[in-house]
Amino acid sequence: MTADSMLPPCPACRSVYTYEMGTLYVCPECAHEWSSMAASDAPAAETASAGITDANGTPLADGDTVTVIKDLKIKGTSLVVKVGTKVKNIRLVDGDHDIDCKIDGIGAMKLKSEFVRKV
What we know:
Blueprint: E1 19-21, E2 24-26, E3 33-35, H1 42-49, E4 66-68, E5 72-73, E6 80-81, E7 86-87, E8 91-92, E9 99-103, E10 107-111, E11 116-118
Antiparallel strand pairs: 1-2, 2-3, 4-7, 4-11, 5-6, 8-9, 9-10
């Protein structure tokens, strides 16, 4: 067993390709960084994201499928995410825009949970 296999998986996307950078663990797949002190505290990371709800108050979880409930203009472009756009396999993150996702035809972006509803 090598030293790399002893590192914990990413709490955001469960990738096994994590690496150490100083006192942090870093995931090269989703760019999530977390403290090496909190690595043994994985359930705490899940409870922190458990408070995120959709526009109807339904709790959201990583991997859920949601639908956009309002036309969303994308800053700096002329693209618009239309009402009814289905977004699969979301990831919950901390911050103002609390959903990381990929939208077909647009690419990776962050959404606010208040503009989606769980399918």
